[in-house]
């Protein structure tokens, strides 16, 4: 009988959303999507049609000439390849370093552990602009400008990633470590085979955020990459727009924005499930 008292009873209509809540969510979604839809519509119009009347974006006909103009550029695919190499390299490096650092701060005992963790967190308060000059001089002395290591290495310093992974490792019960030790597993074996698979949602979230930040990065690639063949996509498109500012129009500008956003959209769709799982798990911890 006790089981009957604790058994949840389903009531018809209990899981339905209230009409006011549904309308509010639809309005919020419309507000969020409106700029994106407007950007896509502008990118599908010829530059001549948009001169003096951006409202023409709501009228037929539409064209892909702005996208053909981007793809016909000699170095667009080179810039796209550079962005992929830099973003993937930065993401892989951040995941490896932050996972190891998070495991160390959460599970291992060593001298000055708390002091070092606070020192890492202080990195969150230091803006990138504050260290840009010594960073530029250091990379110039090491002859790393106009190279992939020069574009990737600065992005590997991720205090937020260390903090994020440390908190996630701390939330995992230590009983798993003790059980693995009783079976004779080493610290490295526990990290690699027991704990690391449990952090997959957190790593997916951190990986997506790191990839987005690296893909959208503009300032450091603008400083470090001075040769056009080493431009990332954001720097290259901006340079192309400035070089042809007198001939490019609003439609071409919006097509550039859409073209640069497509890889980010693909990454988010692929890892959407892990992001939701990680956020839901973090909220309930």
Number of strands: 0
Shape descriptor: globular
Q: Tell me the distance between the termini.
A: 33 Å
Which structural class fits the helix and strand makeup?
mainly alpha
Using only CA atoms, what is the Rg? 25 Å
**What kind of sheet is the major sheet?**
none
Residue fraction in strands: under 5%
Low-confidence stretches: 1-6
- The helix count comes to 16
- Helical residue percent? 55-70%
Structure characterization notes:
The chain is mainly α and 285 residues long. Helices cover 68% and strands 0% of the residues. The chain is built from 16 helices and no strands. Helix 6 crosses helix 9 (159-170) and helix 12 (200-216) packs across helix 16.
Top keywords for this entry?
mainly alpha, single chain, disordered N terminus, 285 residues, 16 helices
Q: Topology of this structure?
A:
Layout (H helix, E strand, L loop, with lengths): L1 H5 L12 H25 L3 H4 L14 H7 L4 H32 L5 H10 L9 H10 L6 H5 L6 H12 L4 H8 L4 H9 L4 H17 L2 H6 L8 H11 L6 H21 L1 H13 L1
Helix pairs in contact: 2-15, 4-15, 5-9, 5-12, 5-14, 6-9, 10-11, 12-16
Summarize the structure.
The chain is mainly alpha-helical and 285 residues long. It has helices spanning 2-6, 19-43, 47-50, 65-71, 76-107, 113-122, 132-141, 148-152, 159-170, 175-182, 187-195, 200-216, 219-224, 233-243, 250-270, 272-284. The chain is built from 16 helices and no strands.
């Amino acid at each position: 009988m006790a089981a009957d008292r604790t058994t949840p009873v389903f009531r018809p209509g209990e899981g339905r959303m209230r009409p006011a809540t549904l309308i509010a969510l639809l309005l919020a979604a419309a507000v969020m999507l409106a700029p994106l839809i407007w950007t896509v519509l502008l990118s599908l119009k010829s530059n001549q049609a948009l001169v003096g009347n951006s409202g023409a974006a709501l009228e037929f006909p539409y064209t892909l000439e702005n996208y053909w103009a981007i793809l016909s550029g000699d170095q667009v695919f080179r810039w796209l390849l550079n962005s992929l190499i830099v973003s993937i390299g930065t993401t892989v490096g951040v995941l490896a370093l932050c996972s190891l650092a998070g495991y160390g701060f959460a599970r291992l005992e060593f001298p000055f552990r708390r002091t070092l963790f606070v020192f890492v967190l202080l990195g969150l308060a230091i803006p990138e602009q504050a260290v840009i000059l010594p960073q530029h001089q250091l990379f110039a002395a090491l002859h790393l400008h106009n190279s992939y290591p020069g574009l990737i290495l600065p992005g590997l310093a991720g205090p937020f990633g260390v903090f994020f992974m440390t908190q996630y490792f701390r939330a995992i019960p230590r009983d798993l470590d003790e059980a693995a030790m009783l079976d004779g597993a080493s610290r490295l074996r526990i990290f690699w085979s027991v704990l690391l698979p449990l952090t997959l949602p957190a790593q997916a979230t951190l990986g997506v955020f790191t990839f987005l930040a690296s893909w959208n990065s503009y300032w450091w690639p603008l400083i470090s990459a001075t040769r056009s063949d080493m431009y990332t996509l954001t720097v290259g498109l901006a340079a192309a727009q400035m070089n042809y500012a007198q001939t490019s129009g609003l439609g071409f500008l919006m097509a550039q924005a859409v073209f640069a956003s497509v890889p980010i959209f693909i990454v988010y769709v692929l890892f959407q499930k892990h992001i939701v799982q990680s956020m839901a798990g973090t909220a309930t911890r």
